[in-house]
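Good morning C.,

I know you're traveling, so I'll keep this short. The sequence:
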Amino acid sequence: MRHWWTRAADYVLELILGAALLLVGLFHIVFPVLGVAGPWASADSREVRVDAAARLPGGMTSTAMTLRGSDRAELVLADPGLGQRLLLVLPVAVGGLLLVVVLAVLLRMARTFRDGDFFVPENTRRLTVVAVALMLLGVLVPLLYMMTTNLLVRGEPMAAAIAPAQDYAVLPVFLAILAAAAAAAFRNGTRLRADTEGLV
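The tokens, ready to paste straight into the viewer:
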């Protein structure tokens, strides 16, 4: 009974990871890319942070874009061109791609759990890939948001009112540290198992 339940749990885990991989791929990569160059509705706005010293009472408008709100405001582009749509979608697509990498690697790891063999050399390398991808998700994606926002508002009157984003994603960085620690544990487990097999 326990063996049957363990195998069923492994298949459920693979199903959940596969569904998450599909959803992230669709909503963070495929649909945003279709919005840039395809028939899908294109992105035309982004949430930004307004400098506390330049709070806006209602909104600030130019011919190309509008900044509405204060503190957390919405930057709306009137008729974004291809380059502007690319800048709007780039951080979302890069973050989605990194999530796809993490989920795909975790799915491959989950498939090795069916045999009850966790400490295989491939899983050590996979956890290292997960750690690197999560670190990039926590550091690179916020930097992309900041850089692309600066490029979008360059030369516009509201450029001085938008504060640079300084909030890095703490959770992915923390998870990256945990994944790196797990990779070290898997590496030690693999080494111990190889030493034990050599003694038999």
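Safe travels,
E.
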